[in-house]
Write a structure and sequence with these properties.
79% of the residues lie in helices and 0% in strands. It is built from 15 helices and no strands. By secondary structure, it is mainly alpha-helical.
Length: 280
């Protein structure tokens, strides 16, 4: 069935259709880019497609003004400081726990794994008030570190579930052969399991990065003016200044283009992980 699906996808008509769909999907991003390169009065007077009538009027003045806005520039840095550690921690801890649940024997392993699976159904909204109270007592409320902990905690159940199921499909003979060669658990994990699980780990990293980077609810609750990410900063700009589109347009484009760049940079690994899961 997979072979037939691949054969159909490789056909010329399907490729053309997928290219058209991809270009259509990129229209909002292209429109936002062109809008951010127009003068503020032109943005408010007409649509972005009018740029093709006078392309010489494109300007980077909005980006220059954006770089002078300390709230936006600081929020971009905060977004990076939140997203990168939250993604790395989830991937590393999820991979270690997934390997343990898949190939290590310890008391109550299956029951612990069922508990992890049960955490997948807990909505984020349920934990906002209790964790906000806990962070307030610990002095973490309003800090970047608190947001990182929240994203890590809620990203781990899915990470452990995904990687455990992927690692469990690794042939036992490979692990036994490595153990016969004298490899310990750490060496077995780093030299055998991680290379084979690379596509799944890359897919998890992309999902976690996109979720944390584009998050607004958690950041809106747990951050303050000094730790807010770009999503909250843009929302604050809209609320405070209304129609300052000369800052909002380039800020929104930067907020959108970075996740797109990450996705396209790792799309090969992402597709490999998805296809490997489908085959298994």
């Amino acid at each position: 069935m997979i072979a037939k699906l691949v054969e159909k996808v490789n056909s010329g008509a399907v490729r053309v259709f997928l290219v058209v769909v991809g270009l259509f999907w990129l229209v909002p991003t292209i429109g936002l880019l062109l809008s951010s390169l127009r003068a503020p009065d032109e943005m408010s007077a007409s649509g972005w497609w009018k740029v093709f009538e006078e392309p010489s009027r494109l300007t980077f003045s909005s980006y220059e003004k954006l770089l002078e806005n300390s709230d936006i520039t600081d929020s971009i840095l905060n977004t990076v400081l939140i997203t990168v550690p939250a993604t790395v921690l989830v991937v590393v801890i999820g991979a270690l726990a997934g390997y343990a649940f898949a190939w290590m024997e310890f008391p109550g392993r299956d029951w612990w794994f069922l508990g992890v699976v049960g955490l997948l159904v807990v909505p984020v909204q349920v934990a906002l008030i209790p964790i906000a109270e806990l962070f307030g007592k610990l002095g973490l409320f309003g800090s970047v570190f608190g947001v990182i902990l929240f994203h890590t905690g809620f990203g781990l159940p899915f990470a452990v579930f995904l990687l455990r199921n992927f690692f469990a499909e690794i042939p036992r003979e490979l692990l036994e052969a490595a153990r016969l060669d004298g490899a310990g658990e750490l060496r077995l994990f780093t030299r055998v399991v991680l290379p084979l699980g690379g596509p799944a780990i890359a897919s998890l990293g992309i999902f976690q990065f996109l979720w944390v980077w584009n998050d607004m609810l958690i950041a809106l609750v747990f951050t303050d003016a000094d730790s807010q990410p770009i999503t909250v900063a843009l929302q604050t700009q809209v609320r405070q200044f209304g129609n300052n589109i000369d800052v909002l347009a380039p800020g929104a484009f930067i907020s959108m283009v970075i996740p797109l760049a990450v996705f396209f940079a790792f799309q090969r690994q992402f597709v490999s992980g998805v296809m490997a899961g489908a085959v298994k």
